[in-house]
Automatic annotation (TrEMBL):
Organism, scientific name: Streptococcus porcorum
A Pfam family the protein falls into: DUF4479
Keyword Nucleotide-binding: no
Protein name per Swiss-Prot or TrEMBL: tRNA-binding protein
Ranges for domain TRNA-binding: 90-201
CDD domains: tRNA_bind_bactPheRS (cd02796)
Length: 208
């Protein structure tokens, strides 16, 4: 789940993104201070809007925010009080991490895409489809994992590119809105001292 909050531009509303609607028709069910957004065809919940959110629990930051377990429990009590049976789940794992490309193969249905296996933790490897011209086996870079919100506001979900599953995105400096980022294609190239799985820290991992 992706928690987002921007009081100045949206109001005192905690927005919770549960799943990608994939441009399907959605409907809204509102009870009290909670609105559930769901797919019309299946009834599957794709988002929640919780109004007057700061009166329920403390929220720090703008854009994608990370909540304490106590805050999530407080929001779940509100959902229950309004008659909803589903619960919010708290995922506090970092969504932008150091990854290392361990293998690559050409995409059979593209002249510029490749299929990469990228290690993003000591025991975790994900498949990512990308077309970065500087991607190579052994390169360490920054990976946006499913559940990440980019500075542009776009969300990272598992998906497919030309029929091949992809579970994240290797990031270019400009995609992360880094200072003095070169305005050209190409993912971030980290030095070999970067630790795979470590949360991205611009002050530590980026030098223009």
């Amino acid at each position: 789940m992706i928690f987002t909050y921007n009081k100045a531009h949206v109001g005192d509303v905690l927005m919770v993104i549960v799943a990608d609607s994939k441009n399907q028709e959605v409907a809204v069910e509102k009870k009290g201070q909670v609105a559930r957004v769901y797919l019309e065809a299946s009834g599957k919940t794709v988002a929640w809007n919780i109004f007057e959110a700061s009166e329920i629990a403390e929220i720090k930051g703008n854009g994608q925010v990370f909540l304490s377990d106590e805050a999530v429990a407080a929001f779940n009590k509100v959902l229950e009080a309004e008659g909803f049976t589903e619960k919010l789940e708290n995922d506090k794992d970092p969504k932008f991490v150091v990854g290392q490309i361990v293998s690559m193969q050409a995409h059979a249905d593209s002249d510029h895409l490749n299929i990469y296996q990228v290690q993003v933790g000591s025991d975790k490897t994900v498949q990512i489809v990308a077309g970065a011209p500087n991607a190579a086996v052994g390169l360490k870079t920054i990976v946006a994992l499913p559940g990440a919100m980019m500075p542009s506001g776009s969300l990272i979900f598992p998906g497919q590119l030309r029929g091949v599953e992809s579970f994240g995105m290797m990031c270019a400096p400009r995609e992360l809105a880094l200072p003095n980022a070169p305005q050209k294609r190409g993912i971030i190239e980290l030095d070999d001292q970067a630790v795979v799985g470590e949360a991205f820290d611009p002050q530590k991992h980026w030098t223009a």
